[in-house]
Design goal:
The chain is α+β, with helices and mostly antiparallel strands. It has two helices and nine strands; from the N terminus they run αββαβββββββ. It folds into two domains: 33 residues; 137 residues, AOC barrel-like, CATH 2.40.480. Strands 1-3-4-5-6-7-8-9 form an eight-stranded antiparallel beta barrel. Strand 4 and strand 5 form a beta hairpin. The termini are far apart.
């Protein structure tokens, strides 16, 4: 009987101590997670390389240039993302994606663009997914999601041309996250 009571006391102590230990372990696991991005705006620069660049390729040529300009032409890309407009500034990651020409009119650029930003500034790390229309008069893409530090984000990115020094063109991406 004394042995059964000792066993019951031992089980009770195990239950009593297991709850605080579980809570401590849960906190330790959470500390390994990346912090959520809490700011509402950030900017970065995309270094677009052209002219035989290894990070820019034609997926599909235009469907029929005699009647529809470049309609259907598809391009895949991967470009460096930097902290400032200088190509030698701190790398923040890569932007990768594809475009499809959707205009039927010669000289009129209208691209469907789907891309994702792979971002790591040392504090925040993850991906942000964009999609929308790129035009010669301006580009604003929708933010449709993210991962890691950017999990569940929504918002938009405005893309502005900064400079061109062949074979590079530099674009500034101003990101606005909505609450």
């Amino acid at each position: 009987m004394a042995m059964a009571q000792s066993l019951q006391e031992l089980v009770a102590l195990g239950v009593i101590f297991s709850v605080p230990i579980a809570l401590l372990l849960e906190g330790a696991e959470a500390s390994n997670e990346l912090p959520s991005f809490k700011e509402h705006q950030f900017s970065y620069y995309v270094q677009l390389q052209t002219g035989g660049a290894p990070n820019l390729g034609i997926l599909r040529p235009p469907i029929n240039t005699t009647i529809s300009a470049n309609f259907g032409s598809s391009t895949i890309f991967a470009f460096n993302v930097t902290e400032s407009e200088l190509r030698t500034s701190k790398s923040l990651g890569l932007i990768r994606g594809y475009t499809v020409e959707t205009s039927y009119v010669s000289g009129d650029m209208r691209l469907l663009e789907v891309e994702f930003l792979q971002y790591d500034d040392g504090r925040y790390k993850g991906t942000v997914q964009y999609q929308g229309a790129v035009t010669s008069t301006g580009t604003e893409l929708a933010i449709v999601g993210g991962s890691c530090s950017f999990r569940g984000v929504r918002g938009y990115v405005v893309v502005n041309f900064i400079s061109s020094v062949p074979p590079f063109s530099t674009y500034r991406h101003d990101v606005t996250l909505l609450e």
